[in-house]
Every structure is written in structure tokens, then in C-alpha cells.
Design brief:
This protein is mainly alpha-helical. It has helices at residues 4-26, 39-56, 64-73, 89-101, and strands spanning 76-77, 84-85. It starts with a helix and ends with a helix.
């Protein structure tokens, strides 16, 4: 028959296992991978998804601010947390100019 300390160890392991199962079950789909060095890649892909249409079909003269405002009015999923968010016009504009300079 196991002693008190052995029983306490078994109970503690079961509690940790049940807690881990609950945490895993309640995670958001975008949180499947633990945070890691790949977060910079997620951010890069996210930035490209925001400004990609502007880079593929650059706006006509005088049309950029309107398109930036349309993009800023949209809801976007945060690349790490998966929470809905909006971006500022100045952020999207900065990303656009950095992206267009790298072509």
C-alpha cells in the first residue's frame, strides 16, 4: 500500500494533468504553437497581408490616403494572440513605404 507522500505525488500529478488538459482545450486556434522565435515570421506575414494589395496594385496619385483609411477601418486578427484589432493609418502607411522601398 502506498504511503502518504506517494499518494500526494499521485494526486498532484493528476491535478497538473487535468489543469494542462483544460488549458490546452481552451486555447485559441492561433495559439497552437507556443510563442517562439517564429513570432517575427507571423508578424511579417501579417504585415504583408495588410499591405500586399497596395504593393501589388499601387494606388494612383492622390488615392493612397483613401486606401490606407479603408485598411485602417478593417478588423484584423493579431498574428500572435488571434484577438481582433484595428490598425492606425500611420502604421499601415509606414509598413507600405518600407515594403515598397524593398521591391
Amino acid at each position: 500500500m502506498p504511503g502518504d507522500s506517494e499518494l500526494k505525488d499521485v494526486v498532484e500529478r493528476c491535478r497538473r494533468h487535468e489543469t494542462a488538459k483544460k488549458i490546452k482545450k481552451n486555447r485559441h486556434p492561433m495559439e497552437k504553437e507556443p510563442p517562439s522565435s517564429r513570432s517575427h515570421e507571423r508578424w511579417a506575414h501579417f504585415r504583408f497581408s495588410v499591405i500586399g494589395s497596395l504593393l501589388a496594385a499601387p494606388p494612383s496619385r492622390g488615392q493612397l490616403q483613401g486606401q490606407l483609411q479603408e485598411l485602417a477601418a478593417k478588423n484584423w486578427r493579431h498574428p500572435i494572440s488571434g484577438q481582433w484589432m484595428q490598425l492606425g493609418v500611420s502604421t499601415i502607411e509606414r509598413w507600405y513605404y518600407k515594403g515598397s522601398a524593398q521591391e
